[in-house]
Design a protein that fits this description.
The complex is a heterodimer of chains A (226) and B (293).
Chain A (H helix, E strand, L loop, with lengths): L1 E9 L5 E10 L4 E5 L6 H8 L7 E6 L2 E2 L5 H10 E4 L11 H11 L4 H14 L15 H13 L5 E5 L7 H16 L3 E5 L3 H5 L4 E6 L2 E7 H5 L1
Parallel strand pairs in A: 3-8, 3-9, 6-7, 7-8
Antiparallel strand pairs in A: 1-2, 1-4, 4-5, 9-10
Chain B lengths: L1 H13 L1 H37 L2 E7 L4 H13 L4 E7 L1 H12 L17 E6 L5 H12 L4 E6 L1 H43 L1 H9 L5 H40 L1 H4 L7 H26 L4
Antiparallel strand pairs in B: 1-3, 1-4, 2-3
The chains are: A alpha/beta (226), B alpha+beta (293).
Chain lengths: 226, 293
């Protein structure tokens, strides 16, 4: 599902954000990417969604070689992914249901169909009652769940989540992790970047450890929590 | 198309302050352009109408010319094919015109008699006549018995035609200036509007909106805002015009039919101008604040 080979990336100065990073994520797998702040998790995440172009190496996501994609190709790739960020990145002035339906509409669904799918996605994150609320009126945890609903609305085969539990209280964080785990159980491949050890302790799957832009270790989440 | 409209309306609703500022700047631009168009089109129409009316010649008689002399001169002049109209103005009529034109100062005429004014022939010649044609006729008529003086509006007509051309060029220059200035202002405003909507832009990129899906709603929102702003500006301009025109119509009836609001085609041009301003402004503004990847 994801193949990253010898990817390096520098921003301006001599310090490399990513250094010769290689890994694979198989279909249906739940993989956590962890490491301290500034280790390169977010840069790697941005490389995977085509937001940052690596200096060298190759990246294949969902069968598409990102190095060969133009802007339209990147957009097409993103339409097939479920993306969750540290910040929910919602349109604050739009109702929750429209925020979620937006991703479905961009994929060409009619407004009615998109809203129906959005209602389903909101049910999955237990926010069906907030459908009519404006995004700006929600608390941080609820916004993150709306962001998750938007990521799930098109039933993506691959979900990329960058620090989705950061800044959330333990209950909300657990709720977000359960939703991601459930999505994986339903068949989606999940790659989640996090440095939240509590979050890692409740997850099952593979973990990639990144430090100073290098992928150092690879182990099972169970081993890490033990 | 429904998707674009809905997204455009959602975008406007999501950032009412930015949309309001953009709408106000377009409305101000269209209002100014409309005011320039209104003033210059009325000025041009007035000058052009006056200049196109023909060349007026006033032929004054000596007191001793007598009725026979006047009739002979009139008959001679009426025979000229270039004469469009001719009218005799007696001393009494001239006196009345003078008194009317002096209005409240007419009392200055107290003690004077109509005999101080000469009788005259008011002649209108075809506008096509050249300076030389008019001069030839004036020289010939001046030599007629009983004629004391002749005055022509030929120079004024030439000036009027030139003035109409100047008004037209000034209108074009002001229009171009308005266009450039308003485009700059609106682009800057929309840049601010796009900046306030950068989160929305980022979200759209994030979910894979591209091409028309990405640009379309924003540009359409700009076009809609521009069209609405243009309509508002035209309504405000019409109300302002009526506020000025109503007293003119009542106090100067002669001008009533000459002062007119913009025609349908001019209003549609302003509407189009507002929509184009909105569309171009939003596209350029968004391009400046958004990075593709």
């Amino acid at each position: 599902m994801i193949r990253v080979h010898a990817v390096s990336k520098s921003f301006g100065g001599s310090r490399r954000a990513l250094c010769d990073v290689s890994f694979r994520v198989a279909e249906g797998e739940f993989t956590a990417l962890t490491g301290p702040s500034g280790s390169g998790k977010t840069t790697l995440f941005r490389v995977l969604i085509g937001e940052v172009v690596p200096d060298s190496g190759s990246v294949v996501v969902n069968g598409r070689n990102l190095g060969r994609l133009d802007a339209a190709g990147i957009a097409e790739l993103r339409r097939d992914l479920g993306l969750v960020f540290e910040e929910p990145r919602l349109i604050e002035g739009l109702p929750v249901i429209d925020n979620v339906a937006l991703a479905a509409q961009v994929r060409g669904r009619s407004r009615l169909e998109a809203r129906r799918l959005a209602e389903e996605a909101l049910e999955r994150v237990a926010l069906e009652d907030a459908a009519g609320c404006f995004a700006r009126d929600l608390c941080a945890g609820e916004k993150q769940r709306v962001s998750l609903a938007r990521a799930l609305v098109n039933k993506p085969v691959l979900i990329l989540a960058d620090e989705p539990t950061l800044g959330l209280d333990p209950d909300q964080a657990l709720c977000v992790l359960k939703i991601l785990t459930q999505a994986c159980s339903d068949g989606a491949t999940v790659l989640m970047a996090t440095h939240d050890m509590e979050a890692l302790s409740v997850l099952r799957g593979r973990v990639l450890v990144i430090h100073r832009g290098r992928l150092n270790d690879e182990s099972e989440l169970e081993e890490l929590s033990a | 198309m429904e998707y674009y409209f809905r997204r455009a309306l959602d975008g406007i609703k999501a950032s009412p302050a930015a949309s309001g500022v953009a709408l106000a700047s377009i409305a101000a631009s269209v209002l100014f352009a409309g005011a320039v168009l209104l003033v210059t089109s009325n000025a041009y129409r007035a000058v052009a109408r006056w200049a196109a009316s023909g060349i007026d010649v006033s032929l004054y008689f000596r007191p001793e010319a007598g009725e026979t002399g006047v009739v002979a001169t009139r008959t001679r002049i009426e025979g000229d094919s270039a004469v469009v109209d001719i009218r005799f103005v007696s001393q009494e009529e001239a006196w009345q015109f003078l008194a009317q034109s002096m209005d409240k100062s007419a009392e200055l005429l107290t003690g004077l008699t109509p005999q101080i004014l000469p009788a005259s022939l008011e002649i209108r010649l075809e506008r096509r006549l050249s300076d030389a044609d008019v001069a030839t006729r004036i020289d010939a008529w001046r030599a007629l018995p009983g004629v004391s003086d002749i005055q022509s509006s030929r120079a004024a007509v030439v000036s009027g035609t030139t003035a109409a051309d100047i008004v037209r060029w000034v209108a074009w220059a002001l229009g171009a200036l308005t266009l450039a200035a308003s485009l700059l202002i609106v682009m800057t405003t929309f840049q601010l509007a796009a900046y306030t909507r950068r989160d929305e832009m980022n979200v759209l990129r994030l979910v894979g909106a591209v091409g028309r899906g990405y640009w379309g709603p924003v540009v359409l929102a700009g076009i809609l805002e521009g069209a609405v702003a243009a309509v508002l500006a035209i309504v405000v301009l019409f109300l302002a015009f009526e506020a000025v025109a109503i007293p003119i119509r009542s106090s100067l009836p002669a001008f009533a039919e000459r002062v007119a609001f913009l025609g349908m085609s001019q209003c549609l041009t302003l509407l189009l101008w507002g929509a184009v301003l909105g569309g171009v402004g939003s596209a350029v503004g968004m391009r400046r604040v958004s990075e593709w990847r």
